[in-house]
Amino acid sequence: MKAKPEITIFPMVIADYDAVVALWKVLPGIGLSAADGREAIERYLERNPGMSFVARDGNRLIGAVLCGHDGRRGYLNHLAVDPNYHRQGICQRLANACLEALKAAGIDKCHIFVYGENVSGLAFWKAVGWYGRSELVLMSHDIDRRPS
Length: 148
Fold this sequence. Notes:
about 30% helix
């Protein structure tokens, strides 16, 4: 029987971008936009060094998560793991790496946005101790689409 390789977690770098986006594009529940382009992600990683992570099986990228903060609150975005590696604790390891990085930066609360129809995503987050906030409503504004 072939030994199972150890899954390793590393800080995300811009060189990971193509493999990360390829993973995000094939998974349901990940909403991508222009804000996920190479230049935008590079700015995000530079603004939040050592906060985003990737998971690798040898040299193969199998998971990724973006993480950053605004000085008060942390935010996780696009946590994803290749379905062939689900139920091995990799999502939780990636999330925990982010939470540890946020804690080291003095951040004591973190938020994540999950699509309401992403039943498995919602179940995962609830199972690992996250909770919904029914008193909050997410509102967005596209800056380039301001009324004249």
